[in-house]
Specification:
Blueprint lengths: L1 H31 L2 H5 L4 H15 L9 H18 L6 H5 L2 H26 L4 H26 L4 H27 L7 H11 L3 H9 L3 H16 L1 H15 L20 H4 L5 H14 L5 H24 L3 H7 L2 H24 L1
Helix pairs in contact: 1-3, 1-4, 1-15, 3-15, 4-14, 4-15, 6-7, 6-9, 6-11, 6-17, 7-8, 7-12, 7-17, 8-10, 8-16, 8-17, 9-10, 9-11, 9-17, 10-11
Length: 359
């Protein structure tokens, strides 16, 4: 009887946490449709993570602790589901539209941005590896979804590092969203409308930000920008596999006995340090994209599922915000912001050069 009561309480806490995050989600969707926030192009995802972070800072003490199970479920399982369903937004036919030069541009920007950012972050700013990787992947690939997918792959258990990385992508991605159309309008951008599509898709952080910036220039710019952005998203899958292999090879558990110290290493489970975190959700993402390219799903079904996917992604961001810890975020310091700012200017400058050379 006692065990049954405990199970019911656990289930109640799980449902309570899910319900709480769902409520934040609905509020974020409502607010995103208000005239002020709609004009500022603040989508539900951005609003949800802000509300979640505000809750973590000011009101988290007022909700039952047992709700954390439901909140964690939203931040992990629901997010993985959202990433998998994101594959329905991509098709091989779209990618063929920009040719090999578009693919080469996307790959070039991903590789150079990540490598340069990683070296700058670890060598110059002295940031730890996980913080640097998460910040770089947010700038080089696709914002929040890429950051969380990478966090799961490299087994970074400090969600505050990913929260801070997501915050920087929102900050600098939003800046690019307004800056690019303005620079083009006043004639200081040395690119035509077609090249601006390649440039926007290859250098702006999140999908929504790309759409807003490119649409503000021309329909042609928007069409090209979305395809280039989707190519960057597809590159997330091989990136996760490569980064997972690399981190797994170089990982050293800080609690493991030192080889040179003579400590007794019997009893330490070294197998845990050798396991590769295979990003199954990312592999399923690419499978869904392939199936979508084969037109196996009815169009009306895809539309409905994508609405559900948006809902899931917003839930996940709200949960991540709710799980953030401002005291730990402050401990990270300003260097993570400096790294994101460096990458922002790198994308602006090197992006123009890459488009001029490749396209």
């Amino acid at each position: 009887m006692i065990e049954e009561d405990a199970e019911l309480q656990s289930l109640g806490g799980f449902v309570g946490g899910m319900g709480f995050i769902t409520a934040i989600n609905i509020l974020a969707i409502y607010l995103s449709n208000t005239s002020i926030l709609a004009t500022m192009h603040f989508g539900p995802v951005i609003i949800a993570i802000i509300i979640g972070m505000a809750h973590s800072q000011f009101t988290s003490r007022y909700i039952p602790e047992k709700w954390n199970d439901g909140i964690t479920f939203c931040a992990e399982a629901v997010l993985s589901t959202a990433i998998i369903l994101y594959g329905l937004r991509i098709s091989a036919q779209d990618i063929n539209g920009v040719g090999t030069s578009g693919i080469l541009l996307a790959v070039t920007m991903i590789v150079t941005t990540f490598v340069v950012g990683y070296l700058f972050g670890t060598k110059f700013l002295k940031l730890d590896r996980d913080t640097t990787i998460l910040t770089c992947v947010g700038s080089s690939i696709c914002g929040a979804a890429a950051i969380i997918a990478t966090q799961k792959t490299i087994r970074c258990h400090d969600s505050n590092k990913s929260i801070m990385a997501i915050t920087t992508t929102i900050l600098f991605g939003t800046a690019a969203m307004f800056l690019y159309p303005l620079a083009f309008a006043i004639g200081v951008m040395p690119l035509d409308t077609e090249m601006m599509g390649y440039y926007s898709g290859a250098t702006i952080h999140a999908v929504g930000q790309v759409i807003v910036a490119a649409n503000s220039i021309s329909p042609e710019t928007e069409a090209i920008a979305i395809i280039i952005k989707m190519i960057r998203i597809i590159m997330l899958v091989p990136f996760l596999i490569i980064i997972g292999l690399w981190v797994n090879k170089t990982r050293k558990d800080k609690n493991a006995p030192d080889f040179l110290s003579g400590d007794n290493r019997r009893g330490y489970d070294w197998s845990e340090d050798k396991k590769l975190s295979i990003p199954w959700f990312a592999i399923l993402f690419i499978i869904v994209a392939i199936l979508n390219s084969m037109h196996l799903f009815p169009g009306i079904m895809v539309e409905k599922v994508l609405i559900l996917d948006d809902f899931f992604m917003t839930m996940a961001m709200a949960a991540l915000g709710a799980k953030s810890d401002f005291s730990k975020i402050r401990e990270i310091g300003y260097n993570q912001i400096y790294l994101a700012a460096f990458l922002f200017f790198w994308l602006i400058g090197f992006g123009i050069l890459a488009v001029k050379i490749i396209i």
